[in-house]
Amino acid sequence: MSGFSAAWLALREPADARARVSGQPALAELLAALGTGTGARAVLDLGAGSGANLRHLGPLLPPGWRWTLADLDPELLALAAASAPAPRVQRIDLARELDSLTFPQHGLVTASALLDLVSASWLEALATHCRRAHAGVLFALTYDGRVTCKPMDADDRYIVSLVNRHQLGDKGFGPALGPGAAAAAARAFARSGYVLRRVRSDWNLGPGEPALQAALLAGWAEAACEVDPAGSRRVRAWQERRLRHLARGRSCLVVGHEDLYGWPVPGA
Description:
Layout: H1 6-19, H2 24-34, E1 42-46, H3 52-57, E2 66-71, H4 74-81, E3 88-91, H5 94-97, E4 108-112, H6 120-132, E5 136-150, H7 156-166, H8 181-191, E6 194-200, E7 203-205, H9 210-227, H10 232-247, E8 252-264
Parallel strand pairs: 1-2, 1-4, 2-3, 4-5
Antiparallel strand pairs: 5-8, 6-8, 7-8
Helix pairs in contact: 6-8, 7-9, 9-10
């Protein structure tokens, strides 16, 4: 983890920030449940990349919270280390070394755009670690499989179905949960004794974001071709039609995501 380029992470960061605004009431509830004692002032950010989660969430937390950003990519961690306030960074392979992490006691464990990449067994292990630490959790921007394209195209459903099948492949953690990750996470943390809030955090991309839309279309087309090589010509024709809509300033995309907020039931 993370396996994503700095350019892609920078491209998506404004859309991520807009999408997460709807979760602020749930964040307030989470912070109230955690309390304000010194034991609740440590944050562990999993798959932190270049530090976008810190840049978004840091200003919303009370002053003085100490961040640890965990990721495998040293170049992204170097970018993250420049964030203010400067966090602690830890280079680690989350897929294989989760058990070696120190989870913050009565603190906060967070991640952004991570859970749809992991396996069911990895997610269960994460829930166990978080519960043992009595940590609150905030997992943002988990892709849930919903995509709406405007103007509509007859092959939109075909492409999205292939993309969602691709999402179930091994992303380094074992067979990925893909579009089912948000629901799987809710079940896993509920079994671990968490109170949960689930909030939609969809990307709503208009014609004013051509670079992000074009990057998404390219990624979807590549994934679809990998799943259905025999349909590559059909996939590329769809991509070309969608790019023409984009060039004419009439393309809009909605990409479904979900945020999960949770805190352990006292005494559970």
